[in-house]
Design goal:
Elements: H1 3-18, H2 25-32, H3 36-42, H4 47-72, H5 76-94, H6 103-109, H7 114-137, H8 142-166, H9 170-184
Helix pairs in contact: 1-2, 1-4, 4-5, 4-7, 5-9, 7-8, 8-9
C-alpha cells in the first residue's frame, strides 16, 4: 500500500472512532509512522483535505458494497434487508459499523466546511441513487422511488447512529422488520 493510501486508511479509522475533532494531527502522524512533511506532501491543505479524501474513500467503499448487494437480490426489500443484516452482524461482532459510519464527521464538520458538506452530500446522493434504481426496477414510479430512497437512506443512517448510541444492533434489526410496511406505504 502506498503512503497516501495508508494515511487515508488509518485516518478514516481514527475519524470514525473518535470523530474529526477528537483526532489530532500528531496522532495521525504517529499511527502512520510518518513525518508532518510527508502528510503535507500528500495533503497540502492539511487535516481537512485529508478528511475529504477519507470521505471520498468511504463513498467508494459504501457504494461499491451496496451495488454488489443490490445486484445479488431481485428486490429492494431483499437487498436492503441483506445489507441491514450485514451491518447488524458487523456491529455485533466489532461494536461499530466500519465504512458506513460517517454521520459523526458530517455533524462535526458539515456546517463548518462547505467542501466537507459537499463531499458528504455526494455520498448520500449516490446511496439514494442505488435505492432509487432498484425501486424503479421493482415498479415504483420515479417520484415514489426518489422519495422512498431518501426515506431509506435517512432511516438506515439513523439506525446506524442509534446502534452506536444504544450499544446494540437492535435498531437496525427493527428497521429491517418494518421495511415491508414502509415499502407498502408507497
Amino acid at each position: 500500500m502506498d503512503t497516501k493510501s495508508l494515511i487515508i486508511d488509518i485516518a478514516t479509522n481514527l475519524f470514525q472512532k473518535k470523530g474529526y475533532l477528537g483526532v489530532g494531527l500528531n496522532e495521525i502522524l504517529k499511527k502512520c509512522n510518518i513525518s508532518k512533511g510527508s502528510l503535507y506532501h500528500h495533503f497540502p491543505n492539511g487535516k481537512e483535505e485529508l478528511l475529504i479524501a477519507c470521505l471520498q474513500s468511504l463513498n467508494t467503499i459504501i457504494t461499491s458494497d451496496m451495488k454488489e448487494i443490490f445486484q445479488q437480490h431481485p428486490t429492494t426489500q431483499m437487498a436492503t434487508q441483506s445489507m441491514i443484516e450485514k451491518l447488524a452482524v458487523q456491529y455485533d461482532r466489532d461494536g461499530m459499523i466500519t465504512g458506513y459510519t460517517f454521520s459523526s464527521m458530517v455533524s462535526e464538520m458539515g456546517s463548518l466546511s462547505e467542501p466537507v458538506r459537499t463531499t458528504c452530500a455526494l455520498t448520500f446522493t449516490k446511496i439514494q441513487d442505488i435505492y432509487s434504481i432498484k425501486l424503479i426496477e421493482d415498479g415504483f414510479s420515479k417520484e415514489a422511488a426518489q422519495a422512498l430512497a431518501l426515506m431509506l437512506t435517512a432511516t438506515i443512517e439513523g439506525g446506524i447512529m442509534l446502534c452506536l448510541t444504544k450499544n446494540s444492533s437492535e435498531p437496525l434489526r427493527t428497521i429491517s422488520k418494518g421495511l415491508p410496511n414502509l415499502l407498502k406505504a408507497y
